[in-house]
Amino acid sequence: MVRNSEREQVWQERVAQWRASGLSQRAYAIEQGFPVRQVGYWVRRLTAVQAAPALLPVRVAQEAAEVRAISLRSERGWTLTLPGDVPASWLAELMQAL
Fold first, then answer.
1. 98 residues of the chain, pLDDT tens digit each
2. Are 72 and 80 in contact (CB under 8 A)?
3. Which of 11, 28, 51, 85 can bridge 23 by disulfide, Cβ–Cβ 3.0-4.6 Å?
């Protein structure tokens, strides 16, 4: 009796031979004397096993927030433009000084 792992190994070799032959699955099955559906089944089964998703290492990085400029305009006509990432405490001190 052929075990499942042995049967799978045999079909891995047969599928590899089919791929190397350049024939269609149907032509290969007929040439080798295999049922056409059986060849298709093993091709799908072995391809699904090989194409199983693998875990990939992922590094999660915090996305940088869009930094917008802060513009202060006085009634006297001057404008002060500051980067958007200015610390709030510094900006508060500046506003008090103005």
1. 557 889 999 999 999 999 999 999 999 999 999 999 999 999 998 887 665 566 778 888 877 767 788 888 888 888 888 888 888 888 888 878 87
2. yes
3. 28
The C-alpha atoms of residue 43 and residue 75 are separated, in whole angstroms, by 78
**Residue 8 exposed, middle or buried by CB count within 10 Å (0-12, 13-18, 19+):** middle
3-state secondary structure of 49: helix
For residue 79, the surrounding DSSP H or E stretch is strand 79-82
Residue 43 CB-density burial (10 A; 0-12 exposed, 13-18 middle, 19+ buried): middle
CA distance 29 to 42: 12
